[in-house]
User: Fold this.
Amino acid sequence: MSENKSQKKRIWFITILILLVLLLISLFVSERRGKIVYREYLSEDILTVDGEKLQLGDLAMYIAYEELKVEDEAAAYDYYDTNKYWNLHTSGRFVKEVAKTHVIEMAVHDEIFYRQAMAEKLTLDEKEEEQLRSRQEDFWTDMTEEQQERLGVDKAEIDRQLEKAALAQKYQNQIAAENNSDFDGYSAGAEPYEQILKEHKYKLNEKLWDRVNFGNIILNH
Assistant:
């Protein structure tokens, strides 16, 4: 009798274990299905900053930059398994989530400052143009051909986005000097910049952004 009970318990245990495994597989498949292939959604609206709409493709430079930066940090943390770093949980959030948020913060910051630079008719001087050309070349060559293909935009588009960022940076330098502050004081997340941000409106297409599989756009984890 006791042997039958023991056998029934084992059967129940195995059944529950199988059900749990199937549930986990189902959740994993469901999550993967919900993600999008980034390069197929480049023309979809993702951000609106002060009434100006940005498409997902307009964030390509920021996405590639942030993925490569985090991957470098991950390789320093564990060269043989970079996933460990991407999935670290610090201060209540995963590294992947923090980096993904940073992409939006940088994009909003640069869009606001770029518009200000245009309003004040700022242009890059010869030295700044030279620095920009160097960044444009380095940025593109830092990616493999496979990564460039996965990103889905060409070098001309990346060059355009880097030029916008350079003009935003020039305005950031200017406003920092005007307020006797340092450059970083007006970077995304810094208090002086956050005060400026309150004067602007931006809206994120969260439904679409949630489906962007950050960390697996130009990378493959």
Observations:
- Residues 35-210 form one domain.
- The first strand starts at residue 45 and ends at 49.
- Residues 26 and 188 are 38 Å apart (CA to CA).
- Strands lie at 45-49, 52-55, 89-90, 93-94, 202-204.
